[in-house]
Design brief:
- By secondary structure, the chain is of the alpha+beta class.
- The chain is about 45% helix and about 25% strand.
- A 5-stranded antiparallel β-sheet has the order 1-5-6-7-4, with helices on both faces. The protein has a two-stranded antiparallel sheet with strand order 2-3.
- Strand 5 and strand 6 form a beta hairpin.
- Helix 2 packs parallel to helix 3.
- The chain is globular and about 70 Å long.
- The N and C termini lie far apart (about 80 Å).
- The model has no long low-confidence stretch (mean pLDDT about 90).
- Pfam families: 4HBT_2.
- Keywords: Membrane, Transmembrane, Transmembrane helix.
């Protein structure tokens, strides 16, 4: 059997390292690895039949998450992404979206920070679908400290549905018409703000005049 010259082995190693370096420079590799791990874990967990049920993921603030010894503001939104992946996997929304050949995108988010999560502090990320309209699901996600139970941050997310609707997704899952829960007052205020902002931006760009 012919032996591979050491010089050729070294070149292969250098090529692999160069490719990995290019990937880490151009793509957020850790995000996709974490997302894959979260989805895989949710795949093997028991399904949640109540679509509006709250689901909980646990976490801890690591040195990778912090600035100035507390969790970076942007990290909260990143963790919420992963929690929604798990939520949709376990309650069947992802499966229904694929079956209907639809897709979902984040249309809007708002987050309120109440107290910093410090390095080493554990937390629960509690996610649930609050309600929906004809175009989007509306979710609430809470960061609750395991130290004292305080809600350290709360986020609302508008998950827009493309090429389908929340009603069709839920009918596909439940095999029946699902009654839409009422909008809580604070969530309704935020939805009104989104609508007003959209109308103002359309008017600013001249879209309102073009549609008349």
């Amino acid at each position: 059997m012919e032996e591979v010259p050491p010089e050729r082995e070294m070149w292969w190693v250098l090529w692999v390292l160069a490719i990995l370096l290019a990937l880490f420079c151009m793509v957020d590799v850790w995000y996709f690895l974490r997302a894959a791990a979260v989805i895989l874990r949710a795949w093997f967990q028991p399904p949640v039949w109540d679509v509006t049920a709250e689901q909980v993921l646990t976490g801890r603030v690591t040195p990778h998450d912090i600035d100035m010894c507390h969790m970076n503001n942007a990290r909260y939104l990143r963790e919420c992404d992963f929690a929604r992946f798990s939520l949709y996997m376990r309650n069947g929304v992802f499966k229904a979206v694929r079956a209907l050949r639809a897709s979902m995108v984040v249309g809007a988010t708002t987050i309120r920070y109440r107290r910093a999560l410090c390095i080493g502090e554990g937390y629960e990320l509690r996610s649930r679908i609050v309600t929906w309209d004809d175009k989007a699901f509306f979710l609430e996600q809470r960061f609750v400290s395991t130290k004292d139970g305080l809600v350290c941050a709360v986020m609302y997310c508008k998950q827009s549905v493309i090429r389908s609707s929340p009603d069709k997704i839920l009918q596909h899952l439940c095999k029946r018409k699902v009654e839409c829960p009422e909008f809580p007052e604070d969530l309704q205020h935020w939805v009104n703000f989104i609508s007003a902002s959209s109308q103002a931006l359309r008017a600013e760009s001249g879209l309102e005049e073009k549609n008349k």
